[in-house]
Amino acid sequence: MLAVYAKSINPDDPLAGLEVGERPEPEHADGWTTIDVRAAALNHHDLWSLRGVGLGEDSLPMILGCDAAGTDPEGNAVVVHSVIASDTWRGDETLDPKRTLLSELHQGALAQRVAVPKRNVIPKPAELSFEHAACLPTAWLTAYRMLFTRGDIKPGMTVLVQGASGGVATALTVLASAVGARVWVTSRSEDKRRSALELGAEQAFESGARLPERVDAVMETVGQATWAHSVRSLKPGGTLVVSGATSGSAPPAELNRVFFLQLSVIGSTMGTKDELERLIRFCLERDIRPTIHATMPLTQAHEGFQALLDGDVVGKIVFTV
Ligand SMILES: NC(=O)c1ccc[n+]([C@@H]2O[C@H](COP(=O)([O-])OP(=O)(O)OC[C@H]3O[C@@H](n4cnc5c(N)ncnc54)[C@H](OP(=O)(O)O)[C@@H]3O)[C@@H](O)[C@H]2O)c1
Question: Which of 9, 74, 247, 284 is deepest in the core (most CB within 10 A)?
Fold first, then answer.
């Protein structure tokens, strides 16, 4: 079958190991099933994998991709929850120390077919296209959990989203404004700031700009480049939720501010199957659809990966299969 896979690891030149070509059909164990993929979304995670973060040489070749929407063997339209917990784990899958995402231990979703545990398969409502559904399981689910489970965001709060254009960041902007939060964003580019306003942000600032007032909560996926600004932008007692560190993971901790202003710094990762089901319902209720930057066939994977690497994207890149 046709697949997009990592043939080698290269921390400095991630696309050097990217291949589009034939891979064996998925084999699955008891309790697993094979999904015919109709659409699969690209995530920054796929670039990290090609750089060797979370993926070792001994696992290669590895089909990339965490997110898929497609059809199950009975022909039902489905969305795949990407967090695979161990068989014996019960409760919040994201807390299982042995959890894994598609494309880490098991072959990923950027392929004609992907094998997944049956319990990770969710019905796809007809109102949601395969392309939109494929955006939800990683970026949008992560944003949902950051805001509503970990960040406890309420209507009327002011929420700062750092790095407005990313897959997670666009989801944060849309979801937070949909529940009545006042969303402020930062971005490095004027065009991307304009896009964020169109998505529902109330104000958009240059990265690092002084804000008119301090905010209740900050949503961080950028890391080192924006961390100090995030900490300094919070009200006393405010909350910083972090799920990513695209620009680096070792910023100055700003500890004096953290304890003196009694800030909460909260980590967040992916989300549960229950949260994914709630996210899907919320999108239908509010007629929300993920922002798709471009849709392209799987055969054009290099183009999509290059755009993500260049930071030349607002929202998600989706591959059709
Ligand atoms: N923990 C989890 O479960 C989880 C889940 C999903 C994602 N993540 C992580 O979260 C991060 C974002 O993921 P994504 O898929 O949304 O990535 P993406 O679509 O590639 O977005 C990248 C974002 O980073 C910003 N950015 C990059 N470098 C920057 C810099 N030097 N200064 C300021 N902003 C910078 C960009 O903002 P502008 O260009 O607008 O300034 C853009 O919003 C990744 O590191 C990813 O691994 C973690």
Answer: 9
